[in-house]
Each structure stands twice: as structure tokens, then as C-alpha cells.
Amino acid sequence: MENYGYTKTENDQNQQNNGPYRSEKKIPAALLGILVGWLALNKFYLGYKKEALIQLGLNIITCGAASIIPFIEGILYLFMSDKQFDDTYVYGKKGWL
């Protein structure tokens, strides 16, 4: 059986739950991106320190215009399924869009 990047404990918990899959990080990350994306808090929240510092630098250089990036990311997070979000951003560690 393939585990697709999940630990045995995570697989066991998901199988025991038998309910719909829920991401713990999706909604907070989306709201941080939409509401305070100029601070790169969505990146820090997901554990992307390097990308967060780049985002902060871009916001300083562009006088805040680059804050459209985390805003768009937040919207994308909301429209993804919870499983897809976790596979892409939590386990897959995709740093940008």
C-alpha cells in the first residue's frame, strides 16, 4: 500500500475517522493570505520561512503592490479541496502558487 507522503499514524487516523477529510491549516492559511498577506503570515504559518522573507522583501520594494500574490494564494486555497491543499502545501511543500 502506498502512503503518498503520509506517516503510518496519519493513515491510521484518517482510516479510523471515516468522515470527510478536513485540513487543519487550509482556512487559517487562506484567511491570513487574504487579510494580512502583505505581512506574509500565510507563508510563515505554513512553515515557508524563506518564501515569507522573499514576500516581505517584495512588498517593501514594490510599496505593497506584491501583496496581490498572497491575496490570490488565499483565494486559491479556499477553492481547493482540503486533501489537495494538504497534499500540495503541507506535505508537498510547494512554496508559491
UniProtKB/TrEMBL annotation:
InterPro entries attached here?
TM2 (IPR007829)
Where does the UniProt entry say this protein principally localizes?
Answer: membrane
Which portions of this protein are annotated as coiled-coil regions?
A: none
GO CC annotation? membrane
Q: Where is the signal peptide?
A: none
Stretches with biased composition (Polar residues): 1-20
As for membrane topology, the entry says: Multi-pass membrane protein
Q: Which residues cross the membrane?
A: 27-46, 58-80
Domain of life of the source: Bacteria
Q: Which UniProt keywords apply?
A: Membrane, Transmembrane, Transmembrane helix
Q: Which protein are we looking at?
A: TM2 domain-containing protein
Organism encoding this protein? Chryseobacterium shigense
